Amino acid sequence: MTQNGIECCDSICVHEELLQKVNAHMPKEEELYDLAELFKVFGDSTRIRILFVLFEAEVCVCDLAEALQMTQSAVSHQLKILKQAKLVKNRRAGKSIFYSLADDHVRAIIGQGLEHIEE
Amino acid sequence: MTQNGIECCDSICVHEELLQKVNAHMPKEEELYDLAELFKVFGDSTRIRILFVLFEAEVCVCDLAEALQMTQSAVSHQLKILKQAKLVKNRRAGKSIFYSLADDHVRAIIGQGLEHIEE
DNA sequence: TGAACATATGAATAGATATTCATATGTATG
DNA sequence: CATACATATGAATATCTATTCATATGTTCA
Asked: What are B51-89's pLDDT values in tens digits?
């Protein structure tokens, strides 16, 4: 242990205070898991592209597939994931189903992400 | 085609205007990819937990391992990923290496994520 | 310099995931 | 009601990824 007391890492001198502070502020297991699951949804360029389309307008599945040059099935699978994460919502109009952004968190999160990578 | 012109989805009547608008605003392939890569880094509960520890203080690897009850190796591998994404930085102090948050985007992004899941 | 310690890293493995293909569900229309 | 169309979904596969294990790198100190 040195004068300032911040020396590391003998098992004897693990920083107990720090560990207690960390444990006090660490979210619960479930919240951490949900948070990771949410970001996982943003962590795929196909889904990111879908979200960028929805930034422009409410769109039906077949237009999404056309816009992104993807299979209807692939788009549909990803839309399901986006919907489960409550990032998009949909409504039926005849045979078609139109998707749109669920709320403004999507823009906010992607906006922050863009800021970070554009440094 | 119906009166209002927003009927979908015969190949004949894909919404050309929409597609053009989408293409005009869609980021480049590389930017989309980088964005997805960034969120992928947030999309793992181990890395989220590491970031929450770093919210409290600058910490060495062995304390991180202790705090999270993980192998030094596992922590080190994840720290590498966080560093590549420029979410954390490090400095050497003797034998130890201390990690800390690279900038405030990390807090902002996680904050937005927390807001979303807490609805 | 050599021993002990803190961290990094490569290879291997087990588990997760995006797309494809085939098909089911649900809706409008003749 | 039967057909065509738009979307959803289950299974299979190929790819990716987090952890583990063994070991390498880099630092301190005697």
From this structure: 999 999 999 999 999 999 999 999 999 999 999 999 999
pLDDT tens digit string along A62-93? 999 999 999 999 999 999 999 999 999 999 99
Which DSSP string corresponds to B55-88? HH--EEHHHHHHHHT--HHHHHHHHHHHHHTTSE
Domain ranges across chain A: 13-118
3-state secondary structure of A99: strand
* Reported pTM: 0.90
Distance A97 CA to C19 C1' (A): 22
Domain B13-118 sits in CATH at: 1.10.10.10
Residue A30 CA, distance from chain mean position: 16
Contact B35 A112 (CB under 8 A): no
CA atom of B115 to C1′ atom of C20, Å: 36
Q: Residue B40, Cβ neighbours under 10 Å: how many?
A: 18
